[in-house]
Design goal:
This protein has 15 helices and 23 strands. Helix 6 crosses helix 14.
């Protein structure tokens, strides 16, 4: 019997196993190379190409070279398309926890970028015959001239929006579900989260502009002074002393817009207008009998009840157009007519947010910045604006008209900012309007209707369902709304054919008393609810809660509370509404202009349905 060399057999087997293992490893490495490494290389090259041409694109615009602009835009688009195509080969990353979410985000932003560049490329190619008319003359332009050019570009682009609408809609759809809050604020000294937020909002905003905001775009050139100049009255409302339409009216400025360029022609505090009105009304009869809430809750400095209605207190209605008409009615008593085409209402949040983009502003030796100020535990710009409001209220003779100069400088720095800052600037302004810190009342019906479609005009809306609008007016409570917070809880219970609601507002002011900044918040509170609602009970109001049967098509419950520094208060009302839901419960909550983003909670049949910040009007539909 032949002898077998066992060592040779074992060596052969080991060698065979090693070869199989090597082959497996080689296959795995090949798969990884094809599935990960190669796509990553092409993604990198595509993004590098995109970045390079994007920089050249910006330089071409700065140099006003239209042909180079279109060339670089097309090259930027192609680079991003390459990266987007390569990303498709990494689709398998979607199934990997955590990594899949980040992959989807990158794919979403890249795909959205491609869609928007396709749209812009198509529009610019169609505008090539108008490049001279649009001012592309090869000479760099100043900030104001760039604004004029942008407005003309918008005007010329309008006929082509139908062709590219689907691209903008697809772009918005690609990014709408991206949660930017999961990203760090900064990484290696670079801003991450804010830039992603700006990009997302800009992409979604572009889609809204060409769809539901199309009418506003169509009339925008005319509103911005093409072909004839427009005049607007800018009313500054101090939201830290909240009133019905956003705040106590502190100052005003007259703005002229010609070909997109803005200039402030006059500016002063609101008390100057009231002084003029008082002098006029010494020589003629003026219908200025004050409304009952002003007589009851807003006494003169002497403590006596007011005998006349001032322009600064004319914004009593929570419906912005109604209050604007009342202001204009008083203004016409000055015998100056209405030398403006509409009113733009802004509050301190507008100034603060714009200064965050532009950087600090100096007015009459006073610095306005977004840095925290220890004197108020708030941004410096807020402290200085509140200080100005206090000086104006005291009527000091040498007080300066700050608002017009401040807004003029903010606008000048905005339009003169780097092109790269333009998306952030547009996003900031749109967000302020969406969150009801900028409100418009235009005399042109088409323009007013277009802005209303964007919810930028502050109407109290008609609604087929449950409705709630809580409106606060700080009557002689200083600037205490700077510190007062609210938590609003709605408890809805449906039994048989009766719908019963309980609203609880928890007020809190955790800051110490300040002589003029933080005092007792004297809050005239109105609950706008569906017409025909009936009050059952109330608790916490310092006066008996009364009912107004019909105001703006709603039933209104009136209350009054005082919130002291370093204190809390609670206000409750319970009522029935005539709404009888079937299958689903529909609810519209309208935010008060100028108000903070207060916390709201909704409970239906004992179960909590929502807990959110009310940053704009919100509509809900709950299954029942």
């Amino acid at each position: 019997m032949p002898l077998t060399n066992l060592n040779r057999i074992n060596t052969f087997r080991l060698s065979k196993r090693s070869n199989k293992g090597f082959k497996r490893i080689s296959v795995i490495l090949l798969i990884l190379t094809v599935a990960l490494v190669l796509p990553s290389i092409f993604i990198y090259l595509g993004l590098k190409e995109t970045s390079s041409h994007a920089k050249s694109l910006i330089n071409a615009y700065k140099e006003q070279n239209f042909d180079q602009l279109t060339k670089e835009l097309s090259a930027t688009k192609m680079g991003l398309q390459k990266a987007n195509l390569a990303l498709n080969f990494l689709f398998w990353l979607k199934v990997i926890p955590i990594a899949g979410g980040y992959y989807s985000d990158v794919k979403g932003f890249t795909g959205a970028g491609v869609e928007e560049l396709i749209a812009l490329d198509w529009i610019l190619n169609n505008l090539s015959g108008s490049k001279a008319e649009l001012g592309f003359d090869g000479h760099p332009k100043t900030g104001p001239d760039r604004v004029t050019q942008v407005v003309k570009l918008l005007d010329k682009s309008l006929p082509y929006l139908d062709k590219v609408q689907s691209n903008f809609e697809k772009a918005a759809d690609d990014v709408k579900n991206i949660d930017v809050n999961k990203y760090p604020e900064t990484f290696q000294g670079k801003t991450i989260r804010k830039n992603l937020e700006v990009a997302k909002n800009f992409i979604i905003g572009s889609s809204i502009a060409v769809t539901s905001g199309r009418n506003a775009l169509m009339v925008a050139p005319q509103a911005l002074g093409i072909p004839t100049p427009k005049n607007y009255l800018l009313l500054f409302q101090n939201d830290k002393e909240i009133r019905a339409t956003g705040g106590f009216m502190t100052a005003y400025a007259t703005l002229t817009i010609n070909n997109g360029q803005v200039s402030a022609t006059t500016s002063d505090d609101i008390y100057r207008l009231d002084e003029k009105l008082l002098n006029v009304c010494l020589t003629k009869v003026c219908p200025l009998t004050p409304p009952a809430p002003i007589v009851k809750y807003l006494p003169e400095m002497s403590g006596k009840a007011r005998s006349a209605w001032s322009m600064r207190d004319s914004n009593l209605s929570p419906d912005v157009p109604t209050s604007a008409k009342q202001f204009e009615k008083m203004y016409e008593l000055l015998d100056e007519g209405l030398p403006f085409d509409g009113i733009i209402f802004i509050d301190t949040q507008v100034v603060e947010n714009l200064i965050e983009v532009t950087g600090p502003i100096d007015v009459y030796g006073t610095k306005y910045s977004a840095e925290m100020d220890k004197r108020c535990s708030c941004p410096n710009v807020i402290y200085e604006l509140e200080n100005y409001a206090e000086i104006a209220a005291k009527g000091e003779k040498d007080r300066k008209a700050v608002l017009g100069v401040l807004m003029q400088q903010i606008l000048a720095k905005s339009v003169g900012a780097d092109v790269e800052k333009l998306p952030q600037l547009i996003e900031t302004i749109a967000l302020l309007a969406n969150n009801k810190h900028v409100m418009f009342y235009m005399h042109d019906p088409k323009l007013q209707e277009a802005l209303a479609s964007l919810n930028w005009t502050g109407e109290i809306k008609n609604y087929n369902g449950d409705f709630l609008h809580i409106n606060d007016s700080n009557f002689a409570g200083g600037k205490s709304n700077l510190y007062v917070t609210q938590t609003v809880t709605q408890e809805i219970n449906i039994k048989n054919t009766e719908t019963r609601k309980k609203i609880t507002i928890e007020y809190k002011n955790d800051q110490p008393f300040g002589v003029w900044l933080n005092g007792i918040n004297r809050d005239y509170v109105r609950f706008y609810v569906p017409a025909g609602s009936k009050l059952i009970s109330s608790k916490g109001s310092e006066v008996a809660v009364t009912t107004i049967e019909d105001d703006l098509g709603k039933t209104v419950f009136e209350a009054f509370v005082q919130v002291r520094p370093q204190n809390t208060r609670k206000l409750e009302i319970e009522y029935t509404i005539p709404y009888q839901p079937k299958g689903e419960y529909k609810l519209l909550i309208q935010k008060q202009p100028g108000a903070k983003d207060f916390e709201y909670k909704i409970k239906l049949q004992g179960s909590q349905k929502m807990d959110f910040k009310l940053d704009t009007d919100r509509e809900f539909e709950f299954k029942i």
